[in-house]
Specification:
Blueprint: E1 5-19, H1 22-27, E2 39-53, E3 57-61, H2 68-76, E4 83-88, E5 92-95, H3 108-118, H4 123-137, H5 152-163, E6 170-174, H6 182-197, E7 201-205, H7 209-215, E8 218-223, E9 226-231, H8 233-246, H9 250-259, E10 300-309, E11 317-320, E12 326-334, E13 342-349, E14 354-359, E15 375-381, E16 389-398, E17 405-418
Parallel strand pairs: 3-7, 3-8, 5-6, 6-7, 11-17
Antiparallel strand pairs: 1-2, 1-4, 8-9, 10-12, 12-15, 13-14, 13-16, 16-17
Helix pairs in contact: 3-4, 3-5, 4-5
Length: 441
């Protein structure tokens, strides 16, 4: 990776002026009356020092209102800093608000040239890239119709195609990694991953902690407009997830753990969005589509999931800790032209916290498909080590790299576990005891 610094912030901060009454804002504009204004300051971002080098893929995590979007807008220079120095080298393309520069009265073709000019491209460059942009957006004859007549999907596809066609040095993505329908979501994902492979610098802001860890080489954690942690994604995300579960910062969590042993009772939070929204389903989570159904290119979906405990699929499902066998069968349908999808499953607590997961790509398991692109995978958990409680099964279909999700159901079904002893926690781990006299006694 090149050592050149392409983004440098030195004491950069953003402060907003808040007024108690509408007339207070007017008073600040009139000479001699500013002393009557009642105002206060709010820091969207406290003074921050940060360097990003060429080729880095930096994930930014934090709760809503933590300052993530403010930081990205400052880097894109769509928002001026209140203090500090900011330097950005190279062309920046931002996926903050797709289509924000589009004129609804203009046609799609006219908006391509308008938006491209705003992004710094000449008309000759845009004419050369227009066929590629239109082919990627795939909106057909609607390109010459006013964008106000577009569906939301058509609008998003065209905006994304323009924003990513400028060959930027720095790409800024704010919660827009996958947009549009399933087929286009894959295309958008592949384009961004292609930029990563090409050595572009990428800033990726997302609530999907899994994607941040899978895609990024570095992660930043913001809270209350302050940079809490900057480091390896696995470490930063682990600390951030613990904060979501406990409300304690890394240092506070460590001291609390040393002082008072905490029972394993995590608290669910609205910000813990690494898992998708739960959908209630039966053991037969998704019915197979008719064989004659036609699907668009780039299509893949979860078609069926069956959960059995000790060979039984009838609810209520009941398992015995250390004795029962849990089987999960996941089936999918896909475009045969796509690389073969991968499959993952999760076991979660009743409040949605993942206890464990398994994925075919992590275990090096290849899935065979038939000529229609249909495939399935079965996973077995013998002598289920979960301790007593209620758990949920989640089923997922991912791309071949295990990053982009085509679809999921979580939970597919819930089941209960009973146990003979009184051990506490989520699971029983293999262990050995050794008991012998202390040396010298």
């Amino acid at each position: 990776m090149c050592s050149e610094v392409v983004i440098a912030l030195q004491g950069v901060a953003k402060r907003y002026r808040l007024f108690n009454r509408p007339q207070d804002r007017l008073f600040t504009l009139l000479p001699g009356l500013s002393r009557f204004a009642h105002e206060r300051s709010f820091h969207g971002l406290h003074p921050l020092a940060l360097e990003v080098r060429q080729g880095e893929v930096v994930g930014i995590v934090g709760r809503n209102g933590a300052g993530k979007s403010t930081l990205l807008q400052l880097i894109c220079q769509t928002l001026p800093p209140s203090e500090g120095r900011l330097r950005v080298s190279g062309r920046v393309s931002a996926l903050l608000e797709l289509g924000a520069g589009f004129n609804p009265e203009f046609s799609g073709r006219e908006n391509v040239f308008l938006s491209g000019a705003i992004l710094g491209m000449t008309r000759r460059q845009l004419e050369a890239r227009l066929p590629e942009i239109l082919a990627f957006a795939d909106i057909g004859a609607f390109v010459d119709q006013p964008v106000k007549t577009y569906s939301s999907g058509m609008f998003v596809r065209l905006a994304f195609a323009v924003a990513t066609a400028v060959d930027p040095d720095i790409l800024v993505v704010d919660e827009a990694l996958s947009v549009g329908d399933g087929a286009f979501a894959r295309k958008s994902f592949e384009r961004i991953m292609g930029m990563k492979t090409a050595g572009k610098t990428i800033l990726f802001c997302s609530h999907s902690l899994y994607q941040v860890e899978a895609i990024c080489s570095r992660a930043l954690w913001l809270e209350g407009g302050r940079l809490i942690e900057d480091g390896a994604p696995d470490e930063v995300i682990a600390h951030y997830q613990r904060f979501l579960d406990t409300g304690l910062m890394p240092g506070e969590l460590s001291r609390a753990d040393e002082a008072v042993p905490r029972p394993p009772t995590p608290t669910p939070t609205a910000e813990s969005t690494e898992q998708p929204i739960a959908v209630e389903a039966t053991p037969q989570a998704a019915a197979p589509a008719p064989a004659e159904a036609h699907h668009p290119s780039g299509f893949a979906r979860l078609s069926r999931c069956e959960v059995r405990i000790d060979g039984q699929a009838d609810e209520p499902l009941q398992a015995h800790s250390g004795e029962s066998t849990l089987e999960i069968l996941v089936s999918f349908e896909s475009d045969p032209a796509l690389p073969c999808p991968t499959v993952a499953v999760t076991l979660s607590t009743a409040d949605g916290h993942i206890v464990t997961s398994a994925a075919t790509w992590e275990d090096g398991v290849a899935i065979a498909r038939d000529a229609r692109g249909r495939g399935r995978a079965r996973i077995c958990f013998p002598a289920l080590p979960l301790l007593k409680g209620r758990y949920g099964v989640g089923a997922y279909v991912f791309c071949e790299q295990g990053v982009h999700s085509y679809g999921w159901v979580d939970p597919v079904v819930t089941f209960s576990v009973s146990q003979r002893g009184i051990e506490k926690g989520y699971c029983r781990l293999p262990h050995q005891w050794q008991c012998q006299p202390e040396p010298g006694l």
